[in-house]
Amino acid sequence: MASIDERLERYRESTGTYLLKDDDFKAEIKRDMEAVMAGIGARLDSIEEAILNPPVVSDSSDSDSDLDDSEESNDPDPQGTKKFKHLWVLCENETCESLNYKSLLKERLNICEFCGYHLKMSSSDRIELSIDPDTWHPMDEDLFALDPIEWHSKKHPYKDRIASDQRETGLTEAIQTGRGKLNGIPVAIGVMDFRFVGGSMGSVVGEKITRLIEYATHRLLPLIIVCASGGARMQEGSLSLMQMAKISSALYEYQSNKKLFYVSILASPTTGGVLASFGMLGDIIIAEPNAYIAFAGKRVIEQTLNIILPEGSQETENLFEKGLFDLIVPRKPLKSVLSELLKFHAFFPWNEKRPLLLPLNATLEHTKCN
Ligand SMILES: [Zn+2]
């Protein structure tokens, strides 16, 4: 059997992923692989043990009497497998629930290797997926939320929630906005992040999106917004709802007056005020496969109307049948689809050496003056 070093080397040759010069990284991967092997070993041991000594099925009638014993013997984690929990990501598909190895998941664009389900993705990974390397310029990173209505919650004070989510995600708010190039075409892009207070839209998210739209309007840039949000942010009350009107009026100037091109991408989940404003206002609306897209959640509808919603009725594929959006695009071809759409709408790669707005005779005039 090949040693871990040999396997690492082989893996590096086939994928070019691990830089063996980086000793720390190599040691980390080695530790991960050893832990995986230990986990598999422990699992095999427990299976072997279970085959050799099948558990005695106790009679249901005396289950109450030996409750204490059964709690001791049914240790949920006898092999200490929880120790390796951080290495794996559970598939969000309820019919799959397979474990994906975390280190390889990013390379697979957070798509489950067993069933092809599109798992949630961080905003930074999405930017890396769509924007050319070294062309990303973030905007308004210094804006952060205050507590405008002094939201009263003993369990989760709003300010603490913001601070802890900032620490965990490394973001200042639930959206990253900026400019970058998509296959060489300059674009203004905003990407929401569900990990930050459920991707909810408060006044900072609304302000960042509005500024992004105004920037794109002045620079005549195409606009892309990736939505992944639980809706308006309840901790900011009606100030969150006002963002819907603010963003929509900025989009009216961008789309109707300037005749520019806006693509909205609906990732899982896109709900509430986000769907009801800029999510549905795209000139082209793209949805990710198996995304949860809804205005009101399943439970709210069922409790209000006293009906049972059919399974999957608020998912991409069913909504596409009803004509809610234009395209379902999986993550792998997303960048090339976007670039085709932009070219189709007369946005082309930008050549910095030859500025587009300066015709040849203008350059001659300029040199003559000097
Ligand atoms: Zn799966």
Automatic annotation (TrEMBL):
Listed Acidic residues bias regions: 61-75
Biological process according to GO: fatty acid biosynthetic process; malonyl-CoA biosynthetic process
Major subcellular site: plastid
Residue segments, region Disordered: 53-80
One Pfam family cited in the UniProt record for this chain: Carboxyl_trans
Cellular component terms (Gene Ontology): acetyl-CoA carboxylase complex; chloroplast stroma
Binding site for Zn(2+): C91, C96, C112, C115
SUPFAM superfamilies given in the database record: ClpP/crotonase
Keyword Zinc set for record: yes
Domain CoA carboxyltransferase N-terminal: residue ranges: 89-360
Compartment list: Plastid, Chloroplast stroma
UniProt entry keywords in alphabetical sequence: ATP-binding, Chloroplast, Fatty acid biosynthesis, Fatty acid metabolism, Lipid biosynthesis, Lipid metabolism, Metal-binding, Nucleotide-binding, Plastid, Transferase, Zinc, Zinc-finger
PROSITE patterns, sorted: COA_CT_NTER (PS50980)
Keyword Plastid recorded: yes
Cofactor: Zn(2+)
Record EC number: 2.1.3.15
UniProt xrefs under PANTHER family: ACETYL-COENZYME A CARBOXYLASE CARBOXYL TRANSFERASE SUBUNIT BETA, CHLOROPLASTIC (PTHR42995:SF5)
Family matches, as HAMAP family: AcetylCoA_CT_beta
Oligomer and partners: Acetyl-CoA carboxylase is a heterohexamer composed of biotin carboxyl carrier protein, biotin carboxylase and two subunits each of ACCase subunit alpha and ACCase plastid-coded subunit beta (accD). Acetyl-CoA carboxylase is a heterohexamer composed of biotin carboxyl carrier protein, biotin carboxylase and 2 subunits each of ACCase subunit alpha and ACCase plastid-coded subunit beta (accD).
Family: Belongs to the AccD/PCCB family.
Function in brief: Component of the acetyl coenzyme A carboxylase (ACC) complex. Biotin carboxylase (BC) catalyzes the carboxylation of biotin on its carrier protein (BCCP) and then the CO(2) group is transferred by the transcarboxylase to acetyl-CoA to form malonyl-CoA.
Protein name: Acetyl-coenzyme A carboxylase carboxyl transferase subunit beta, chloroplastic
Species for this entry: Ligustrum quihoui
